[in-house]
Amino acid sequence: MSVHIGAVEGAVAERILLPGDPLRAKYIAQTYLENPVCYNEVRGMLGYTGTYKGVPVSVQGTGMGVPSIAIYTQELMQSYGVKTLIRVGTCGAIQKDIKVRDVILGMSASTDSSINRSRFGQIDYAPTASFDLLYRAYQVAKDRNAEVKVGNVFTTDLFYNEGIADLEQWANFGILALEMESAALFTLAAQFDAKALSILTVSDHILTGEATTAEERQTTFHEMMEIALETVIAE
Ligand SMILES: O=P(O)(O)O[C@H]1O[C@H](CO)[C@@H](O)[C@H]1O
Ligand SMILES: O=c1cc[nH]c(=O)[nH]1
After folding, report:
1. How many CA atoms lie within 13 A of 175 on its CB side?
2. For a purine D-ribonucleoside, which residues are the binding ones (predicted)?
3. Calpha distance 109→198 (Å, rounded)
4. Which of 58, 106, 113, 186 could form a disulfide with 13 if both were Cys (CB 3.0 to 4.6 A apart)?
5. Which protein residue has the closest C-alpha to ligand 2 atom 1?
6. Exposed, middle or buried by CB within 10 Å (0-12, 13-18, 19+), for 23?
7. Is it the case that residue 163 has pLDDT exceeding 90?
8. Binding site, annotated residues
9. DSSP characters for the chain?
10. For ligand 1, atom 8: residue with the closest CA
11. Cβ of 6: how many Cβ atoms within 10 Å?
């Protein structure tokens, strides 16, 4: 057991999907995994292990934001030996040519979070996904004829950022979408010599105001879930 995860040793697979929403974790486990067993209910942050096409795979909710995902991913790698981590999250698009429900592979994650400034002082570290996972996910998407966008996402501490964030500047510098966890995931995976990637579905468009419902975010982003599962078992 670790501080925030109640699983016994060996109960978590080396390969894991990480949605922010614990009910998305439950949905993925019950929809895609064979014989899913719930290994964690501490704080309602559900975690399951089962098999996907015969390969042991876990799926663990991480909660929202950098501090929350940092706790879960560090404990998963440090206490349970997790080695391959794919975030399956939602994001808000800030580019005109990206639509609601599009899938984004996060290659890198810029951030306004202070967490890496605490770690690295004046150095601007560049949180980067695993090339192996990114390449594999891109191939999986192409084989399925799924269009994916690949690029730099923005991990923000502020979900409600009206009047604070300069979205136009971020868009002009190539940011595809905003979310709240990838920079921490990529940084910690590097520290623990693990591989990480973020696969995101656009749940809302920040420029147009188009949005999906909580129910849709929980249960309908199948393209992202299936690309992630096919990628994680190939590692
Ligand atoms: O849908 P998830 O994976 O939680 O991701 C996004 O949704 C939450 C905000 O609504 C943040 O966690 C953000 O990163
Ligand atoms: O972090 C997020 C997630 C979805 N939509 C947003 O605008 N921000």
Report:
1. 24
2. 4, 179-181, 203-204
3. 9
4. 58
5. 179
6. middle
7. no
8. 4, 20, 24, 43, 87-90, 179-181, 203-204
9. --SS--PPTT-S-SEEEE-SSHHHHHHHHHHH-EEEEEEE-GGG--EEEEEETTEEEEEE---SSHHHHHHHHHHHHHHH---EEEEEEEEEE-STT--TT-EEEEEEEEE--SHHHHHHTT-----B--HHHHHHHHHHHHHTT--EEEEEEEE-S-SS-TTTS-HHHHHHTT--EEESSHHHHHHHHHHTT-EEEEEEEEEEETTT--B--HHHHHH--HHHHHHHHHHHHH-
10. 64
11. 16
**pLDDT, mean over the chain:** 96
Give per-residue pLDDT as tens, 18-57.
999 999 999 999 999 999 999 999 999 999 999 999 999 9
pLDDT tens-digit map of 199-218: 999 999 999 999 999 888 87
Q: Which atom of ligand 1 is nearest to the CA of 180?
A: 14
CB-ligand 1 contact for 181 (6 Å cutoff) = yes
* pLDDT at residue number 122: 87
Do the Cβ atoms of 61 and 47 come closer than 8 Å? Answer: yes
Mean pLDDT of 106-121: 94
User: What six digits make up the tokens of 205?
Assistant: 């468009």
